[in-house]
Amino acid sequence: MFVRVSRSRHSLLSVSVVLVLLALATTLVLSQKSAAGAASTATLEIVVPQKARLDEQVRVKVVATGVRNLGGFQSALNFDAKHLLVEHASVTEALKGPNRDLLPLGPVFRDGSVVIGAVTCPVAQCAGARYKEAVRDRSGINGRVELAEIVFVAKAPGRLELKLDKVQLVDPQGNVLPASTANATIEIVGR
Questions:
Q1: How wide is the angle at C-alpha 34 spanned by C-alphas 28 and 36, nearest 5°?
Q2: How many whole angstroms separate alpha carbon 149 and alpha carbon 78?
Q3: How far is it, in rounded angstroms, from Cα 79 to Cα 154?
Q4: Which of 55, 81, 135, 191 could form a disulfide with 112 if both were Cys (CB 3.0 to 4.6 A apart)?
Q5: Distance between CA 123 and CA 104 in Å, rounded?
Q6: Of all residues in the chain, what percent carry a pLDDT higher than 90?
Q7: Is the pLDDT of residue 97 over 90?
Q8: pLDDT-based confidence at 4, cuts 50/70/90?
Q9: pLDDT of residue 39
Q10: Is 91 left (phi over 0), alpha (psi -120 to 50) or beta?
Q11: Smallest Cα–Cα separation from 95: which of 174, 181, 177, 171?
């Protein structure tokens, strides 16, 4: 037994199928855009004064902007060792929360670079005797976070670039977060 479909019913059915497919495609595109937004790229940048004088301290900050759920970081800061001498480097406590402990990684000093980083532990006192019973905080930091400060002494005049290298940002579970870098330039002038 065959059912005969008139041309108008057939056209209506075709239009309905096209509309359903269009709706599905639109939903798919919108869900991909929202997923891409959820995995937005954070930027690790160097904040430095534009100029410094010979023999003066130069404070350089490593700042993450646009982060979502940040739980740790590591980066090398490369510089010209003829112009700058590292005096001190440390991580800030910005990643540490009320229920998260901070574990610094480094700094490691090399000729022309400083490698620095930190990770967080999901409890307030990671090395505490009651680690197993402690309240867990599985969320990371969002927004703008000052991660580290490196203090240099300006040793020679000139214009030089400070560059971030081997950057890695991770969430509290250790998953790598997408990141870009923004390097900086400083001019060292005479006294």
A1: 100
A2: 14
A3: 11
A4: 81
A5: 15
A6: 59
A7: no
A8: low
A9: 58
A10: beta
A11: 171
Question: 181: Cβ–Cβ under 8 A, 6 or more apart, which residues?
Answer: 43, 44, 45, 163, 164, 167
**Is 20 a residue whose pLDDT tops 90?**
no
Asked if 113 contacts 106 with a C-beta cutoff of 8 angstroms, the reply is no
Q: For residue 63, which of 81, 45, 40 has the smallest C-alpha distance?
A: 45
**pTM to 2 decimals?**
0.75
Three-state secondary structure string covering the chain = CCCCCCHHHHHHHHHHHHHHHHHHHHHHHHHHHHHHHHCCCEEEEEECCCEEECCCEEEEEEEEEEEEEECEEEEEEECCCCCEEEEEEEECCCCCCCCCEEEEEEEEEECCEEEEEEEEECCCCCCCCCCCCCCCCCCCEEEEEEEEEEEEEECCCEEEEEEEEEEEEECCCCCEECEEEECEEEEEECC
Model confidence pLDDT, tens digit, residues 120-135: 888 777 776 576 777 7
> Do the Cβ atoms of 147 and 91 come closer than 8 Å?
yes
**Partners of 59 in the β-ladder:** 151
- Is the confidence at residue 15, as pLDDT, over 70? no
Contact assessment for residue 36 and residue 53, using Cβ atoms and an 8 Å cutoff: no
Instruction: Provide the token pair at 153.
Output: 């002494």
* CA 5 vs CA 2, 16, 124: distances in Å: 9, 15, 71
